[in-house]
Amino acid sequence: MRNLILSAALVTASLFGMTAQAAEPLEAGKQYVELSSAVPVAVPGKIEVVELFWYGCPHCYAFEPTINPWVEKLPADVNFVRIPAMFGGIWNVHGQLYITLEAMGVEHKVHKAVFEAIHGGKKLATPEEMAEFLAGVGVDKEKFLSTYNSFAVKGKVEEAKKKAVAYQISGVPTMVVNGKYRFDLGTAGGPEGTLSVADQLIAKERAAVAH
Fold first, then answer.
1. 112 CB-near residues (< 8 Å, 6+ apart)
2. pTM for the predicted model, two decimal places
3. How many other CB atoms sit within 10 Å of the CB of residue 45?
4. What's the pLDDT tens digit per position in 88-130?
5. Three-state SS across 121-153?
6. Cβ–Cβ < 8 Å for 49, 175
7. Are 54 and 84 in contact (CB under 8 A)?
8. Rounded to the nearest 5 degrees, what angle is found at the Cα of 96, between the Cα atoms of 160 and 162?
9. Which of 110, 136, 159, 178 is the most buried (most CB within 10 A)?
10. Which domains are assigned to the chain?
11. Coil, strand, or helix at residue 49?
C-alpha cells in the first residue's frame, strides 16, 4: 500500500513536471516498461489496451474525462478492457463491485455515477450499501446482490487479481498494451501523454502484425 501512495505522489508531480516527456521518442524503460513475459489478451487477433484502476483513486477519477472520449474513438482492431486493481480491503470490495456491474451488463450505464458517488463522499463499502445506491440509478437491487455473491463473479475477481500480478503493477491508473507494455501517468507524462504513449504502442503492435 505504501508503494501505491508513493506512486500517487509521483503521478501528481508528473502532471506538472513531466508533460514534455510525451514528445520524446518512445523508448522502453523510459515512457513504458516491456514486460519480461507477455500476458495473454482477452480477444486474440485484436490489440488489447487495459486500464487498471480503483474507484477510490483520485487520479483514476481525474483521468476519466480524458480517457473516455479516447476510448470511444478507438478503431475496430483495438479491444479496450478495464480491470479493477485489488490490493486488499476496500480495493477488493470496489473491484468486486465493478466486476458485478460488468457481469450484469450495466457497467457502461453506471460507471460514472459510481465514481462520482465515491468521490462525493459515499463509501460504498458493503454490498447492501452499493445495492441501495445503485437502485437509485436504475439497477435492480436483488439482482445486484445475487450477482455480487455469485460463483461467476468470484471467479472473475480471482482472474483480475492474477492479471494485476502478471502486469507487475504498483499503482493506478496503469495501462498495458497487448499484454506487453506497461506505463502510467508518471512515466508517460500526465493524462494526455499516457494516451499518446498508448497510441504509439498500438501503432507499433499493428505494424508488427502487418509484417
1. 64
2. 0.89
3. 8
4. 999 999 999 999 999 999 999 999 999 999 999 999 999 999 9
5. CCCCCCHHHHHHHHHCCCCCHHHHHHHHCCHHH
6. yes
7. yes
8. 15
9. 178
10. 47-210 (3.40.30.10)
11. strand
